[in-house]
Amino acid sequence: MGDLNAVLSDVRGWLDRQPEPQEGSAAWYGFNNLRNFVSSLEADPSASGLERACHALGWHISDQYGAYEELPAIAQFNDRVKAIAAGMRRAD
């Protein structure tokens, strides 16, 4: 859980440092997708919960690929959580 808490803290810190995008812009949707991702991780921190959250955010990432400059950072958060979920599965 410590690794997940570190990612959640990093996501929150990153979001706090970003200027709020214009409502309705691709970045605005992306930031809200990231906020929903965090909520999903907090609601179900099990391996399957992490995998579901990553799958959903992954669809948003692929759908919005190249639409705004912050997207690679959002994708990195998703990748970190995928790695945590994989580690949880290996430990089972």
Task: Give the SSE layout.
Blueprint: H1 2-17, H2 26-43, H3 47-63, H4 71-91
Search tags:
mainly alpha; about 90 residues
Characterization of this structure:
By secondary structure, this protein is mainly α. The protein has one domain (2-15, 23-91). Helix content is 78%, strand content 0%. The chain contains 4 helices and no strands. The protein has helices at residues 2-17, 26-43, 47-63, 71-91.
Uncertain ranges: none
Number of helices: 4
Whole-number mean pLDDT? 95
Termini separation comes to: 14 Å
Q: What percent of residues adopt helix (DSSP H or I)? A: over 70%
Question: What is the percentage of strand-forming residues?
Answer: under 5%
Q: Count the E strands.
A: 0
Radius of gyration computed on alpha carbons: 13 Å
What structural class do the secondary elements suggest? mainly alpha
- Main sheet makeup: none
H/E series, N to C? HHHH
**Backbone shape:** globular
Number of domains: 1
In brief:
The chain has 92 residues and is an all-alpha fold. It contains four helices and no strands. Helices cover 78% and strands 0% of the residues.
